[in-house]
Specification:
Blueprint: H1 5-22, E1 36-40, E2 51-57, E3 77-81
Antiparallel strand pairs: 1-2, 2-3
């Protein structure tokens, strides 16, 4: 005897599919080719665990990548910890 679980799972799948259709499209990425990244200081001189500032210079920076527990500012700047170079 099949219980209510298969029906419940089917209902949940339909509900999440409907929500996905009406969800706002956040993080639109446009003109990625026009973005310029500036890393300061140069990664070749940064010690393990030191913070680096990566500046995204684009017309409308409304996206970013967080790496190493960095924090995002509204201007599109974020600090990222440099990962240890295993070849050193």
């Amino acid at each position: 005897m099949a219980g209510p679980r298969p029906r419940l799972y089917a209902l949940l799948i339909v509900l999440f599919a409907a929500l996905a259709c009406f969800a706002p499209r956040s993080f639109p990425v446009q003109n990625v080719q026009a973005a310029t990244l500036t890393i300061s200081p140069a990664l070749s001189t940064v010690a393990f665990g030191e913070r680096v500032m990566i500046t995204a210079n684009a017309p409308d920076v409304n996206w970013s990548i967080v790496s190493g527990g960095g924090s995002i500012s509204p201007q599109g700047l974020f600090a990222a910890s440099r990962l240890r170079d295993r070849n050193r």
